[in-house]
Amino acid sequence: MRIPAVLSIAGSDSGGGAGIQADLKSFAACGVHGMTAITALTAQNTVGVDAVAAVEPEMILAQVRAVARDIGVDAVKIGMLGTVATIDAVVQALDELPAATPIVLDPVMVSESGAALLQADARAALIERLLPRVTVTTPNVPEARTIAGIEGDAPELARAVHALGPRYVVVTGGHREQATDVLFDGTTTNEIPGERFPDGAAHGSGCTHSSALAAHLALGFAPLEAARAAKRVAARAVRDGLREIGRGPGPVDALGIRARSSAPH
After folding, report:
1. What are the CB-based long-range contacts (under 8 Å, 24+) for 132-135?
2. Is the overall model pTM greater than 0.90, yes or no?
3. Residue range 117-148, pLDDT digits in tens
């Protein structure tokens, strides 16, 4: 049986909690092979982001081409982009993949610690050039408000973001009173309920969710079922989050590291 291969086009988190590090853990937890095209290097930890360095657009393209030529790409997850030049490179890379490749966009704008990860002029490029190309986008409520340019709760935001071009929109529930995701497919609004875990750790939860969704699309799930599965994966990772790692919000635990470390060897 062939193992699906899923590509994360995203930034690196030197603290290991979010970005491509979280994506690779999520891919492994879902049973797919993870690959990466790194868009930016960040010097960060659980407390904050000290520095960001963009990867040259040509190198982003080279990474995508290398894995696509040899391994193949069954789905793509897009995370931190940062700059207009990076977005242009990603659009070109997507043009070179088969047209039916599922693409999940997590429109990362701000880190867990509050650092800006998407330049102001790049927001328009993301909305105009990238959003209409994706299968699913997974903004949280603040990101959806920025993208749509309106206030409101998840159902209204999902419809407004959908009008900008993506086939499916999942507004995640982490910033809502109830931790319920909302999926809109252009016709029907579906609620995906979930439990909130105030004693968990949420750093990397958005990355984990979007990469789990991409993994399940690669596994052949329909978008709604993939979104439900991603909700379960991300919620479990938050519930089991590693609160003792670092001095800030700890990273999620998609791989069950705590249970493994406490098991007898």
Report:
1. 132/164, 132/165, 132/166, 133/91, 133/94, 133/103, 133/165, 134/78, 134/103, 134/104, 134/105, 134/165, 134/166, 134/167, 135/102, 135/103, 135/104, 135/166, 135/167, 135/168, 135/217, 135/223
2. yes
3. 777 788 899 999 999 999 999 999 989 998 99
